[in-house]
Automatic annotation (TrEMBL):
Cofactor: Mg(2+)
Protein's name in the database: Citrate lyase beta subunit
Pfam families linked to this entry: HpcH_HpaI (PF03328)
Domain of life: Bacteria
Family matches, as SUPFAM superfamilies: Phosphoenolpyruvate/pyruvate domain
Lineage of the organism: Bacteria, Pseudomonadati, Bacteroidota, Flavobacteriia, Flavobacteriales
Any one of the GO BP annotations: oxaloacetate metabolic process
Amino acid sequence: MLDSYFFIPGDKTKYLEKIDSLTADYIVIDLEDSVAQNNKQVGFEMVRSLTFKKNFFLRIPFFDSCYSKVQIQELITQFEGQIVLPKINSSKDVRQVVEWAEGKPLHMIVLIENPSSFIATKKILKKYSTQIHAIGFGTHDFCSLTGIKHSLDYLAHYKRELIVLCKAYQVDYLDGVDLNLQDLSTFKTECLFAFQAGATGKFLIHPKQLEAFHQIDYLTPAEIQLLQKVYTHVKDIPKDAIEVYTIDGTVYEKPHILRIKKLMEKIQHSNTNLNTNAYGSQ
């Protein structure tokens, strides 16, 4: 029910060659944290050799001085503006990236990883929401800088606030990565919370997480049955023709109908992917 955004190191051939076998909704090729400073140019050349696909994003270390302006512009062009912005502190940083793009269409994922960017999120969305695909919450960096314990109990407030801001500006919210690969219970709990709080997607870093991700039951069988019943009544109604409907004694208004349609389409899409990809059905 959430979209999966799977990170791949941009300088590792063995991982890049496995991209097509992954059942993630989106692939985030990384030239930032997962690539050592002395391997940045190797990563650049490897990424430049890739063929762009519509579900690819590229995380670029814009402000680390490891790539020239020309190199950054080449990457933006190659990935058709589908870029991830790390280490943002203010709307000025986003403006710098927009200026480097020189008018090319952008579909940015802006990472909120520190207190300054958290406070600036509203301003960033207000100025650049039409060029932003999603806001991603980098919770581990955020907690390291603030001293907050990395636990859902302490992070839930900040996640909810970012989700509401994203909804206000009609951009997606992506939940941060979980680094515990031994015990996936925390990962599953984070996914369920994110879905129930209104998030759109989740960052993943390991095939174990992707396998667990596909096994999460976001809705109970009874909830799915109810969705299917309502969806049967409204699936063919155009958006601009939706009215108020009473189905089995419950009133459904336009926002309810739109959400039900979106959920059912996501369920159908997920089922199709799992049935047609052997990796996802293991």
